């Protein structure tokens, strides 16, 4: 089973995770820039983080045979902090970089006027820089947040076909699908979507334009959830081709809209032979 995790925050994960992901079939991933938990107090903190997502983290992933790409943006939560909003002015110089495959994660957290501005501005940047957009839908007030997101996308210059609406569930999948956008589902260990609910959504909705991710980060999460969904699909009677479509071809098609996917990372053994395996502190 080959797996592309289209949303995972590896900065918060260990090398054991990289190893286990590789062993489970993960060969490529996208790391969206997001809220680090600790509030940032200046744009410079974002730029160091963006540079890490473009340099250090792809290097670390490659040691484990995994192709790493990122999406960059001012995240919805910090869009409310005036100390952070100047990031929007500097974002264009990052969006031209090779490792960036979308603008994201953008969207709504609390649906404030500041979030309206950040979302509309960044959808416009995505259109200008010919990148797709990865849009987070709020965990609270989900359906209202999704509807408002779809309205803002419709008012933007970006095609809905170039937008991924993430963190969907049974209550939001139909409205999201009707908008013409791609559909992202984050699978969590004990709350929100789990693998069995995901299989039910795939049964009723089908596999078209569906992406499944672990959204693993610094909270309780599981970087192997993509594999567990693949196994659950097979157990439920989906074919290997269905699994490959959801876990590989769909994310490749969506992020391939950037024209920047590089999926040819050598297997880790080849790297180990050269004795270049990464060790902490060296
Ligand atoms: Zn995320």
Written description of the protein model:
The protein has a single domain (3-258), classed as TIM Barrel (Alpha-Beta Barrel). The longest helix has 16 residues, at 113-128. The two termini are 33 Å apart. It has helices spanning 15-24, 43-54, 56-62, 87-95, 113-128, 142-155, 173-178, 195-205, 225-235, 240-255, 268-273, and strands spanning 3-5, 26-32, 67-72, 100-107, 133-136, 163-166, 182-186, 210-213. Strands 1-2-3-4-5-6-7-8 form an 8-stranded parallel β-sheet. The chain is globular, with a radius of gyration of 18 Å. Helix 8 links the parallel strand 7 and strand 8 (210-213). Helices cover 42% and strands 15% of the residues. Helix 9 (225-235) packs antiparallel against helix 10. The chain is α/β, with parallel strands linked by helices and 282 residues long. Zinc ion binds at residues 7, 9, 32, 34, 105, 215, 217. The site of zinc ion (ZN) has 7 residues, from loops. This is TatD family hydrolase. Belongs to the metallo-dependent hydrolases superfamily.
